């Protein structure tokens, strides 16, 4: 079962495909692990620093313990009075790269003589309130606590660094941290003057079947038919208990098809979708080496040579993300093994307990990419219950309450850029229509691009669509800051 977390853009890059898939790390998490092992993540460009953050913002101040929250600062472009751009940490570890030119926000800061500060999200990376994690301690992992973290940090930052006194703040984020960025501006307008929010799924949703519908549309009819044939074969293997099955061993469960329960089947199919979902979600960005065009060309060529070649290639493509062998018991066991810094566990907890949902079951339509009933909503709900003891009988109601609390797509604010991308499955949960009650706000979708596309540093290959998206953000900020 692929870990679905997703990302602030470095979280967009390293975080997983967003949702609740706890095991078999996605391509992005595997890539980040390899980069960490190779020494890519270093702090030479911006030394790591630590802020004494409150463990619980909602208890009496006299009883508040603190923990060390990681952050990085790039003030090489800063001039007194320039704005500070706060990169909100998201569902994965943060890094010095975020303030060292990997993202476009560094170019924006230079334009306005500003600084960039990246703050890691609690319970991710090394920003751990506890050395030992238990389910009751996970209760302190929530979007509400995270918003308070960033607000307190911004308020206290000038005391730690007096030269920034008087500077105004702009929050920045992508994916889940895009939610946080927008919510910071909405909740703390006296602290954050503006917000940039890309690929933000502000609409919490229990039954997010649109995820794979967009994935299928992005693949196109020929490629999606090839991919669908693989998933349909897996469905046949399951329904016949392996009696009529052409999938090779490395695309089959070790427990055997005959022993699979319905929950095991959902876990297995979730794992099988990994390479396709990740390639579509992060198509053409800086984080992956595989594009939709490349993947589809390989799959279509293999399919023309027969099912054996096709299945062999698909298994090889998935290998980078870990084996597809999966069981429901393994998923639960992994989530119940409380390890500080485990992004999969932390994000799955948030989808369940923070009541975002974002669960991605297969559609009931037989024409869709995944066979009907292959990944069920029951599977996701049962994970929340068995891994964390969460009462799922009222989960749908709690998800509705999340939308009431944060407003979902009803935004009453100002100076926020809501950016989505047409190829990104998460655009379905973003702000897509003009906002009646949001002054000097931008709502724009970049055509032909995927998750967090405009947040990466500019490249010579950037097309007109990306350039237009960046120009709209600058126009909003130009109305607020001199340059």
From TrEMBL:
In the UniProt record, does the keyword Ribonucleoprotein occur? Answer: no
Picking any one GO biological process from the record gives: proteolysis
Instruction: Please list which residues make up the signal peptide.
Output: 1-19
Q: What InterPro entries does the annotation carry?
A: AB_hydrolase_fold (IPR029058), Peptidase_S28 (IPR008758), Ser_carbopepase_S28_SKS (IPR042269)
Cited Pfam families: Peptidase_S28
Domain of life from the UniProt record: Eukaryota
Is Glycoprotein a UniProt keyword of this protein? yes
Keywords (alphabetical) are: Glycoprotein, Hydrolase, Protease, Signal
Gene Ontology molecular function terms on file: dipeptidyl-peptidase activity; serine-type exopeptidase activity
Membrane-crossing residue ranges in chain numbering: none
The similarity annotation says: Belongs to the peptidase S28 family.
Matching PANTHER family: PROTEASE S28 PRO-X CARBOXYPEPTIDASE-RELATED, SERINE PROTEASE 16
User: Any idea what this protein is called?
Assistant: Peptidase S28
